[in-house]
Known about the structure:
By secondary structure, the protein is mostly helical. It is built from two helices and no strands. It has one domain (4-49).
Amino acid sequence: KADIVSSFLAVPELIKEGAIESGAYYKDLLMLYVFTAIGAVPVIKNQIKGK
Length: 51
């Protein structure tokens, strides 16, 4: 049985073995971080303004 924590911990080993293409993985991870930041900025600004 694989749980989510084990899955995340296995990612570096899978990249090392070539089971996951590192270029695509890191590109997608970067896009996730960028879009998360873009979505968080308005929320943070509104919280600071008190809306």
